[in-house]
Description:
The structure is a homodimer.
Chain A: E1 18-30, E2 34-41, E3 44-51, H1 56-64, E4 70-79, E5 92-103, H2 120-125, H3 127-130, H4 134-155, E6 160-161, E7 179-181, E8 189-191, H5 197-205, E9 210-218, E10 230-239, H6 243-262, E11 272-274, H7 275-282, E12 296-297, H8 299-302, H9 308-315, E13 319-325, H10 328-331, H11 334-344, E14 353-358, E15 361-363, H12 367-370, H13 374-381, E16 388-394, H14 396-413, E17 424-428, E18 433-436, E19 441-444, E20 473-478, E21 481-489, H15 493-502, H16 507-522, E22 528-534, H17 535-543, H18 573-578, E23 581-583
Parallel strand pairs in A: 3-5, 6-9, 11-17
Antiparallel strand pairs in A: 1-2, 1-4, 2-3, 4-5, 7-8, 9-10, 10-22, 12-13, 13-16, 14-15, 14-16, 17-20, 18-19, 20-21, 21-22
Helix pairs in contact in A: 4-6, 4-17, 7-14, 15-16
Amino acid sequence: MKRTNYAGRTNESQIGEEVVLKGWVAKRRNLGGLIFIDLRDREGIVQLVFDEKQDPAAFKVANECRSEYILEVRGLVRERAEINPDLPTGKIEVEVKEANILAKSQTPPFEVKDNVDASEDLRLQYRYIDLRRPEMMKNMKLRSKVASIIHNYYDNNDFMDVETPDLTRSTPEGARDFLVPSRLYPGHFYALPQSPQLFKQLLMAAGVDRYYQMARCFRDEDLRGDRQPEFTQVDTEMSFATAEDIQDMTEGLIKRVMKEALNVDVKTPFPRMEWQEAMDRYGSDKPDTRFGMLITDLSDIVKDSSFKVFSGTVADGKFVRAICVPGGADHYSRKDITKKEDYIKRYGAKGLAWVKVTADGYNGPIAKFINDLAAPINERLGAKEGDLILFVADSFHVVADSLGYLREKIAHEMDMIKPGQWNYLWVVNWPMFEYDEGFGKWIAAHHPFTMLNEEDLHYLEDGEDPHKAHAQSYDIILNGNEIGGGSIRIHDPKIQEKVFKALGYTKEEARARFNFLIKGLENGMPPEGGLAFGFDRWVMLLAGADNIRDVIPFPKNSKGIEPMTAAPGTVDQEQLDELHIDVKDDSENN
Amino acid sequence: MKRTNYAGRTNESQIGEEVVLKGWVAKRRNLGGLIFIDLRDREGIVQLVFDEKQDPAAFKVANECRSEYILEVRGLVRERAEINPDLPTGKIEVEVKEANILAKSQTPPFEVKDNVDASEDLRLQYRYIDLRRPEMMKNMKLRSKVASIIHNYYDNNDFMDVETPDLTRSTPEGARDFLVPSRLYPGHFYALPQSPQLFKQLLMAAGVDRYYQMARCFRDEDLRGDRQPEFTQVDTEMSFATAEDIQDMTEGLIKRVMKEALNVDVKTPFPRMEWQEAMDRYGSDKPDTRFGMLITDLSDIVKDSSFKVFSGTVADGKFVRAICVPGGADHYSRKDITKKEDYIKRYGAKGLAWVKVTADGYNGPIAKFINDLAAPINERLGAKEGDLILFVADSFHVVADSLGYLREKIAHEMDMIKPGQWNYLWVVNWPMFEYDEGFGKWIAAHHPFTMLNEEDLHYLEDGEDPHKAHAQSYDIILNGNEIGGGSIRIHDPKIQEKVFKALGYTKEEARARFNFLIKGLENGMPPEGGLAFGFDRWVMLLAGADNIRDVIPFPKNSKGIEPMTAAPGTVDQEQLDELHIDVKDDSENN
């Protein structure tokens, strides 16, 4: 029997027609003489009816069926006596004339339904059953659809789809490279790419002009919520393009994806927000603009306050900033606020000052110190009776991190985010360098190949402070999540040399690390730039999923294990011998 | 200046228009007061004219230019005094009004032109220069174009683009797996996939129904001519499909690729040739049908011959077969033929018997023994005066391999292959198993998940010989090259168990190796099958290239090294410590 269409696509226009359907038994009810089966395929569910009197052979087959058996049926589409409004096929059913069991199934380890209560590891171990759930199938279809739009969009805009190697070379930048021992060259290793960054720049040197790739990338990082050791990047690069050109091109893609995959119209151009403003007002380089409650600077108002914590902070050249939580006075108890104070200490905050706004002025532990400034503070914050004001007094980064965290947290707790918003925006004009406290040195805020703003080039000269420079880089943000980022790259080898110097490399170190890129720059590199999207995360947001693993067909779990195949696994000593490596007995250290 | 279009796309319709172009200086001629520059971008070349009198500033810039400098120009398109018929833009030139050097270049290590005489390693080391050559750029564009058609085709045929993991588990089948040591789990390794075979089968169990992926695959094999350790596979799988369904779907793709990428019409359906016929008549499981010279069996004619080599071979149940080389008598000397005889000894042939056909009967060392059979032999072979007949008498495989090799070799030497042919065909009905002389055991001819022909299922029963079974598998051949292959898969766990047994696995071994697949079969696996294309090789043939590295942007050389980044490389001991491995000092053994 040749299938006529997907079960889930059966519809009213086919009433009276004969159809052949194939799918999984999702549900089965035996009403004595009549059996109803919900037949499921990737497009949905349709109800089958087996009538013992009319079609005894088919009925017998239906009677043998159990959950998740695979069935093929030939039957007639007919109107349903009782319409099921929850089902797209709810107006019809199929009267089965002939049926065959194509495959049997053991009792599945968990039910194939949304909101299943199986543990994630069990779901991942039986991923092929988990993916049958309508929600998961919807995610996979969305992912495929978005990939299709991406290919189509770039293919039609003169981008060339170019593949770059997965077996490449580890750079000393690449702590966290996955390594692959070479069989032919003892003691030598390939590395899996953390991104195709240098390859795509060299493709611009090759004259490819416009490049894109759905690139698999690998990073052996410590695992956190939504990180995966392998992930997919929509990688693009354009020659002779300005940052604006690249942003426009990207917006065109997003607009199409939103329309074609979700039927949502988004307005372009997206807002461009300066990095400085994002940090000042949202306390984040990935600002969520779906709600207000902006961070407001009060340093000038409190600089002479008798509250020494505030005035002292300002005197030290630091900042006193606040957010005003509308209606927060009743919502949060003193105890709740103390918990939040404990939390923000991880950002380096020494404390969380707060007042509740009442008809009679401020209320709370510091009220008596700043009641005299209530009028200008309230005015600037737009605070009114019943609001809660949270202050942090500290350095720029501590204030931003602390209030940025509180702003987001409280918005979620108080349900301030109206659903259905798709706030895309660009964060632009990033600092070129940032100081890494951990390493105790300056590092590249994006990567060492990022071009400075033209007007900041003088900072690279002797006697100036290079760390004041800003970069021609940009991140694309969706609802407070960074989904991509990029920059114009350095194409002049002399500028690249100065940037390497600002990062603390000697000439020799730079050559040792990036020889092939430097040679590329010396052999005719056009001005160029690009952008990379985190495909998995973007699809997660588009799907409305809150776990990145729900949009990856076979993800690693939070421990880096893929439970279905039980990877990683042990291997034969013979294999290791061929690769000239030994497993070290360092068990004491682990 | 904003580019108006690619240099190579400038055309007559733009005469009189102002254009802005950006590209590389391909050639420069200074005629004193006039400079001509060929400006190259990925779309081609256009001639720029700089006139010292009219535009002295632009002329000065042109005067500074050297090969491979990057230039932006603003100018007017005008008719060319002397048309260059070899150039698509040969009727026009651009009178430059304004010019800037965007990047300088060192003297390139080799000239940017086709048929460059640089060594391949130098070309690969400076790949970004090598890829500027028109031929290489054409290959990259073709590759991108074909990828685009593939995405479009499968996306529009209800296939879902699903990504499978690159960090997966090594199976004991997987000698030649690339391994990736785990940092989190000492002594454990991920393996890079040799193909997504089991994942795609399990996606069918998940109900994906139609799957495709442009999948990166990895195989740590000994390197040969056109093998790369990483390669790209167009991977597909379909549920509820017959072998014919999958072949039809594939033909639809090929037809579109041939039309849209090469403007060639190919006729579908492609011929289906039985494996047995391919081996009997072409001596190959990837027959080249662009020329005749088929292998012909003469066993019945020579079985009573006085030439004991022939009659004895037939008496032993083996074969005497021949090819007739039209006009071969004059083309090949006795010495030439002896060389060929030496060559086919590597296939196990004990000798190469031959005769030249003259007006007076056969001529050559064995002529006197078989002149009596010349009439029926000539008749069957269609041999005539001036032809050369080559005989091999041996077992089925030795005869096929030897005559198959000679057939191909001679066709190339004698220029028998008319260019411009695109002979696609299917080789079907393969043996299920083949005996591996090296391992001394039966192995799967395709892979252990291939379904048998229904009528051969009985061979799996006790007391029968499973190795007689044929499989529902098929290879797709283009001009004598295998470009893809596939099969219907086993979806019944009982049949899979019997096949594992025929391959010599105990139940426990099979479980240990393929546990997750077996579980998948037990949990509702639909009847299904699929096909995988070798993308690199197909593009190579479409491009008319004879080296697979010429269609891979950054390939490994024939020693497994990628000369640009110098991968694989050494890594810090610290990185190895983190991965719990040591490099073994086995230098004596290497």
